Protein 1
Amino acid sequence: MGEVDWNELQNNLEATIPVYDRINRFATVGQVSRWRRMVADRLPKEGKILEIGSGPGSFAEIVEGRDLVCLDPIPSMIAAAEPRVNSKRRGRGDSEASFVKGEAEALPFDDSTFDGVCSLFSFRDWYDKRKGLSEALRVLKPGGSIVIVDPAKINRLHGWLGKMYMQIWVGSYARWVCGVQDHPWKWLTKTYVHFGTTRDYVKMLEEVGFKDVSSKVIFPGMATIWQAKA
Ligand SMILES: C[S@@+](CC[C@H](N)C(=O)[O-])C[C@H]1O[C@@H](n2cnc3c(N)ncnc32)[C@H](O)[C@@H]1O
């Protein structure tokens, strides 16, 4: 992704912050909370967890009983997430999460720092997915887990149907909620179209050196979950 594209994506992502959870619930017909819970359950039950692309904190706020580091390249995402996540954590008696500005492709952490790394609805945006996965492997302790969720395609026809669904159905709702023609969810269709199949990323995880790679389509066209060990 070139610099112009990244700036455009960043502006679009920032514009989603106020309506992010509402549109996500609609787009996933209410399933998104269940998928977030699946990721939380698959991560190690203790130790240090990194979420890459934590956005406004919609997943981070449900991670209980573990040390948590949230990474995102967009400062306004961090500004929205930090009070939300840490007030939940204080309320539960968990240690405060730390928030770091950065990108998947150049993680600002030492080797073997984390017991678990996760990424939800962000992997699709990484401009160099192979580099990002290698970085995730580097910062994981040996035997640590990675869990990723994003909407992969099953095949080309399925990709086309998914594109129509996002353009017409999610797009109409986003236009209505945002009250503008030029709503930021348009970008979702763009990143979706360029995203590969479930199998493509199983292969990529194996190629960068992850072990015990598995995947499951949890909702065709909307969510695949990938899991692997360092
Ligand atoms: C749609 S939000 C996901 C929010 C949250 N993870 C959730 O569960 O809803 C995607 C986030 O990924 C971030 N992102 C985009 N490109 C990234 C990259 N190369 N490295 C890390 N994060 C990235 C964006 O800034 C955005 O905040």
Protein 2
Amino acid sequence: MALLHPSTRRLREWLETPPGAEPDAGVEEHVSHCERCADELEALDATAEVGVGETSEVRVALQEVLAPPTGLEQRMEDRIEAALLARRDLKLLAGLMGVSIETTRLLMEPPEEPRS
Ligand SMILES: [Zn+2]
């Protein structure tokens, strides 16, 4: 009776067993007759493949677009990084104050001129 399902982490480790290394025989045994874990394994495999594929495709596309003018890539990276940092700071500030980002933005706006 193999009623004890391996953890997701164990499944992932088995899935990522490098070639030449000994795979987890227990997981292999279990998955071969447990539909639930086989399904989970399939899902893990799918997400892993999509993740890797997307990353490399995006990276290749970026390199093609950004390659020719020297310095442009670095400048864009700096700008993107600065934008991300500013966003993160705003989020952090919102978190500390316990309010939404929209509210934080409103608070950071200069006060309106009093109506006459
Ligand atoms: Zn199972």
Protein 3
Amino acid sequence: MPIHVGIVCESCERVYFIARTDRIEFLAETGEYQLVCPAPCGVSRRFDKQRLAPFSVKTPHYSRGYANRGEYELVRTPAGYTNTVDGNTGPFSASL
Ligand SMILES: [Zn+2]
């Protein structure tokens, strides 16, 4: 399956893909991102980019901007991994 960069909502375990969703907002003042998970979850939290991680996901799920639990796999990668699909660079934390 293709690999895309996203953040998992720790409450409902849905993954949002940063390049495809409007549920993730970059906060310029703090340099953090804010994830707002819609109802019925309703959790809002801030995270820094180190928390972004690569996920293996089918294209239809990526295209809609999120994948539910069971629709994705967290890809464990070594530090320094570069995701050429989304154009993001830099090490990803594998400690999600
Ligand atoms: Zn959620």
Protein 4
Amino acid sequence: MTTTPKMTETRSEEIVRKHKEFIWPAVTNYYQKPLVADHASMQYLWDIEGNKYLDFFGGIVTIGVGHCNPKITSKIKDQVDKLQHTSTLFPNEHIVALAEKIAQITPGKLQKSFFTSSGTEANEAAILLSRMVSPSFDIVSLRHAYSGGSALAKSVTAQAPWRKSGVVSVGISHAVNPYCYRCPLHLKYPECGVACANAAAPSAQDCGRSVLVSRSHMRWLPHAGDQQGRHGKVHDGNCERDGLRGPDSVL
Ligand SMILES: Cc1ncc(COP(=O)(O)O)c(C=O)c1O
């Protein structure tokens, strides 16, 4: 059933209305009147009505390099014109070149790459790999973490709106999130003695040997991180129990 357009509907209103009509409600927008993005260039973004914004939010992919950075888009355009899709059953020059470059710039023994098309798949692969190389099965994630939309990533996620329809979370526990602004333990740094990190360690202990601590929360809470030594503390705690620490897909 289609919705009836208002007589004086703006283009933004039309797109928001059709978004609700034709896209699953799982894909929600922020705000009652969401900004309908039209085009962008580096730090600027224009909405469909032509208003220009200095973009302080960006997207995960644009946050570091700007919108439509010509250095990047020109390479993408060249590749799409040259060779768009093949099976991974055959090698090609560019996938090997990228893997080689990553091997050169990553530390230590990190020499081999596995490419995925989404953060969800990257997290799936990280968990699979961790479980394969470790005798452990359990995963410690953090409250408020978002790890993706697959069944497993949904279980690692700890935000109710993204865990709809129930989850099967065998071997997954969620540790308290280090968040000074609204401390879940109602404490203040430094008097707290980094109690949040200590609270994470028992969860590794409770579930035996833990294989992965998701860093998802770091995206949302960029200020609440390593400078106060919490990651190191949790990391060390898990290592004592033969755990591994996995990176998050997006970071
Ligand atoms: C921290 C984090 N992990 C995982 C994901 C999942 O990525 P994707 O939507 O590409 O599957 C996201 C996506 O927003 C994310 O922010």
